[in-house]
Automatic annotation (TrEMBL):
Residues 39-209 form the FAD-binding PCMH-type domain. This is D-arabinono-1,4-lactone oxidase. It is an enzyme of class 1 (oxidoreductase). It comes from the Eukaryota. It comes from Pholiota conissans. GO terms for cellular component: membrane; mitochondrion. PANTHER family: D-ARABINONO-1,4-LACTONE OXIDASE, L-GULONOLACTONE OXIDASE.
Length: 487
């Protein structure tokens, strides 16, 4: 839509044109809750545009009304990264595959496409993404905005597979960027946190579809500490799941294979016991905390056998994240991982011996990524070990988590850790400047493309700019606290 046409539109004209994509005020979509059910907001208006022209109108309306716009996808980020009390632009209807090139192995898709849908579209052309995180419920744009990672010591974060981006800036102008065109905007937007512009289209490098053979082997925690680097490099894609109540670790090793599919699983182990029974025990554990130790031992027993399976790549990469949860995850230099894990185990051991100590859930997930050059990637410049913890919310109820998370975050910080951008954390610009050599460059690009801060929500203002106050506080989008959240 040309600027001259926009200038002739009255506010009533804009409202009329956006009416079909405006969520009714009292509808379910007018309220936003993230997947983990840990943050909730009620934006002034929620828009669900279906094309670029409507996105331009939303930004024009925001500028005229002096409002900020927050771009949000599915809302899988466990933090308040997507939350706002002003305008929210949901990308869920900007979800089309625009081009598939099987010869050059790339796809161009709208940023609002959910990865699960992208996998299906790629499979129709015998293509697949080279690496994935633990889930595929998030949008492609959300994956890029937070530099989401998979696992593998030779595989960097997923944003490194992006070849180019088409971005709508805060002023409504359209920019195409890559490593050779508008390079600063590109490097900032590969982990842009939604503040460098609305990503419309993504050109993504992919590869021929492949299957993975995964072997899951139970081992002891001490063996992991002894052979850590060797185990991390034992396959293309390695991850570890640590069950702290027993010191059991499940060592997952996955490699590309030509073997036929061999999925595994049963209703008894995976559904009745592995899902429903554990959720019930976790719920009772809210009232009888010592039961959480028994539940952890039971969960470890369920996985205490070697399992081999072969399936399409994305079915092996992805795991069932079970229940809504509080979670935090940090990236630390792989060279410091063993020392950090020793400290974490010492803390947990002490707490388990204390009748009033914290009772961690399970598992602690340990993954790996190669070094990269993306400005705000937690793997920037370093071979990285990712360590993530969860405290589940059985049946959506709350559980204590803050004391446990503080202790883990202190250990991560002591080992030069960088938090996953999608997860809640407490760092501000002074710490981020130390951790990220290009943090100043990122702020410069953000200011250049959005000088009035149209795209900055409380998360961005708090963490990137260091703003303080009730309206940007860490708990501004928290629901009323449950008594069991006070720990």
């Amino acid at each position: 839509m040309a600027d001259s046409t926009l200038a002739t539109l009255s506010l009533d004209n804009i409202y009329e044109r956006l009416a079909p994509v405006t969520a009714p005020r009292y509808s379910k979509t007018a309220r936003f809750t993230n997947w983990g059910m840990s943050f909730t907001c009620t934006p002034a208006v929620v828009f669900e545009p279906e094309d670029e022209a409507q996105c331009v109108l939303i930004l024009e309306l925001a500028r005229r009304q002096g409002k900020r716009v927050r771009v949000a996808g599915i809302g899988h980020s466990p933090s308040d990264l997507a939350c706002t009390d002003e305008y929210m632009l949901r990308t869920t209807k900007l979800n089309k595959v625009l081009e598939v090139n099987t010869e050059k192995c790339y796809v161009i898709a709208q940023a609002g496409i959910v990865l699960n849908d992208l996998h299906v579209a790629l499979a129709d052309h015998n293509l697949a993404m080279s690496n994935l995180g633990s889930i595929s419920d998030q949008t492609l744009g959300g994956v890029i905005a937070t530099a989401t990672h998979g696992t593998g010591t030779k595989y960097p974060v997923l944003s490194t597979s992006v070849l180019s981006l088409t971005i709508l800036l805060a002023d409504g102008s359209r920019q195409v960027c890559s490593r050779t065109a508008n390079a600063d905007l590109f490097m900032a937007s590969l982990c842009g946190l939604g503040v460098t512009g609305l990503v419309l289209n993504v050109q993504l490098e992919v590869e021929k579809a492949f299957r993975l053979r995964e072997v899951q082997t139970p081992v002891l925690f001490d063996q992991v500490l002894k052979d850590f680097d060797k185990m991390a490099q034992a396959a293309e894609h390695v991850r570890l799941w640590w069950f702290p109540a027993t010191d059991t670790v499940v060592w997952s090793k996955a490699n590309r294979t030509e073997e036929p599919k061999k999925p595994v699983g049963s209703w008894l182990w995976d559904s009745l016991l592995g899902y429903h029974a554990i959720q019930f025990l976790l719920y009772v554990g809210r009232f009888v905390p010592r039961l959480n130790i028994t539940t952890g031992k039971f969960a470890a027993w369920l996985v205490n056998k070697e399992v081999t399976r072969v399936d399409d790549s994305y079915k092996i990469f992805n795991v069932d994240c079970r229940y809504p949860q509080h979670t935090t995850e940090w990236a630390i230099p792989q060279s410091e991982a063993v020392a950090c894990l020793r400290e974490l185990r010492a803390f947990i051991t002490k707490e388990l011996k204390d009748p009033h100590g914290v009772r961690p859930h399970f598992p602690v997930e340990i993954r790996f990524s190669a070094s990269d050059d993306i400005w705000l990637s937690p793997s920037y410049g370093k071979a990285t070990c990712w360590i993530g913890i969860v405290q589940y919310k059985p049946y959506g109820t709350n559980v204590p988590y803050r004391r446990l998370f503080r202790a883990f975050e202190d250990a991560f910080s002591a080992h030069h850790g960088r938090p996953h951008w999608a997860k809640a954390h407490r760092l501000g610009p002074s710490e981020l400047t130390t951790l990220y050599p290009h943090f100043g460059d990122f702020l410069r690009v953000m200011q250049d493309v959005d000088p009035k801060g149209v795209l900055r929500n409380p998360y961005a203002r708090r963490h990137l700019l260091g703003e303080q106050g009730e309206e940007v506080g860490r708990r501004v989008f928290k629901e009323r606290k449950d008594i069991r959240d006070v720990d």
